[in-house]
Amino acid sequence: MKTESSEDVTRILVVGGGYVGMYTALRLQRKLKQELRQGTVEVIVVDPEPYMTYQPFLPEAAAGSISPRHVVVPLRRVLPQCKVVIGEVTAIDHEDRRATITTLAAEETGDGAIEVAYDELVLAPGSVSRALPVPGLADVGIGFKTVEEAIGLRNHVLGQLDIASSTRDPAVRDAALTFVFVGGGYAGVEALAELEDMARYAVRYYHNIQPEDMKWILVEATNRILPEVGPEMGRYAVRELRARNIDVRLETRLDSCEKHVAQLSDGSRFPARTLVWTAGVKPHPILAATKLPLNGHGRLLCTPALQVDGVEHAWSAGDAAAVPDLTAEPPAGPDQPRALCAPNAQHAVRQSKVLAENLAAAVRGGPIVDYAHSYAGSVASLGLHKGVAHVYGRKLKGYPAWFMHRVYHLSRVPTFNRKARVLAEWTLAGLFKREIVSLGSLENPRAEFELAAGTGRHNEAS
């Protein structure tokens, strides 16, 4: 099926509904309100999921501090003036201004993909997990980029406590109570810290498990964790985690995880039924299929105005874009490349605003501006009431850093609706005890019916 572009309508195709995609479309709704109402401009947002995930809240969702539905923002609700297409862009021919989209309906009916013509292209597909060829990783590894993975990991951890509590086999018990996290960035450290905090609270309700029975191991290939908060705060985070009996292994790699045994580069071996992989991300594969200019890391080469370098009517920002950092020190020599903006949420949200402004100016025939933002700093949670922060040159740790972490992300999560719901949940969590229920059956909702129909079996028997 083809969707032709009309000469009377300027069609803007936004590939991706994450930080950049959603915020750009949200801003375009406001800047081009009159054109959208008159039908002279059309904004199409394409994403495989009908929601945007606010990833900084994933660790708290995994720990049960926030409901999963409050970590995501429904695209159709916040983008009523845009056309939201749930599907995946599989090919882009920018010379002909056409994109091929595979939708759920196309997969079901076999009618083929949708071909959409566009006038302006915004490439913001985000990134995907960077999985290394570690033996056994593809079979047992758990990622931490989506809300489904976060909730699945929560259910998994609580399920391991149930296994350890109900077995008499010491080998099975030790493997169930060993949790290995690979990657010392935000995702790995915050996920481990929040889940360890939750599990430590949960074991008080198990008559035969003590907190010291659990082994939590953080594996990081470099000599520091949380590089965004600076060396001093990174060292403090290591001390804080180790004080909680978390085994932090720096300058160490995961060599193998076959048969539920984590083999590390320092020679250590840990039987473990839980291995969480957060060791970096890579650009979305669609970028390599666009024939647009890429840098050595697979990101789109962009100008400071967020246009794809040397290509008209193509824009990008966030994880997908290599954008020069105009606030950084200029290169020492003329042959040296300029520093790039870090591919993080702080830059992505601000870049999307400039991108939308420039795109609206291009549609209306106005001037475009360059993106320049001095990095404000970073905050990280280390569990309930614990954190580190390095913001505007000031270093905070403990409760003040944790409080700043919550305040900052509450201010950044989209829509007043989400802000109010998250704040209400935090308030109630401070008044009542944690919920430690595992709902692993949600991942296989037909299991009980299949058992009744004689075609399945209980999860415990699988």
Ordered list of secondary-structure elements with their pairings:
Blueprint: E1 2-3, E2 10-15, H1 19-31, H2 33-38, E3 41-47, E4 51-53, H3 58-63, E5 72-74, H4 75-78, E6 83-93, E7 98-103, H5 104-109, E8 114-117, E9 120-123, E10 127-129, H6 137-140, E11 141-142, H7 147-166, H8 170-176, E12 178-182, H9 186-202, E13 215-219, H10 231-243, E14 246-249, E15 254-256, E16 261-264, E17 269-271, E18 274-277, E19 281-283, E20 300-301, E21 314-316, E22 321-322, H11 345-364, E23 377-381, E24 387-391, E25 394-397, H12 399-412, H13 416-431, H14 447-452
Parallel strand pairs: 1-8, 2-3, 2-9, 3-6, 9-21, 11-18, 12-13, 12-18, 13-14, 20-22
Antiparallel strand pairs: 4-5, 6-7, 7-8, 10-19, 15-16, 16-17, 23-24, 24-25
Helix pairs in contact: 1-11, 7-8
Q: Would you kindly provide a written description of the structure presented here, covering whatever features stand out?
A:
This protein has helices spanning 19-31, 33-38, 58-63, 75-78, 104-109, 137-140, 147-166, 170-176, 186-202, 231-243, 345-364, 399-412, 416-431, 447-452; strands at 2-3, 10-15, 41-47, 51-53, 72-74, 83-93, 98-103, 114-117, 120-123, 127-129, 141-142, 178-182, 215-219, 246-249, 254-256, 261-264, 269-271, 274-277, 281-283, 300-301, 314-316, 321-322, 377-381, 387-391, 394-397. The chain is an alpha/beta fold and 462 residues long. An eight-stranded mixed beta sheet has the order 1-8-7-6-3-2-9-21. It has a five-stranded parallel beta sheet with strand order 11-18-12-13-14. 40% of the residues are buried.
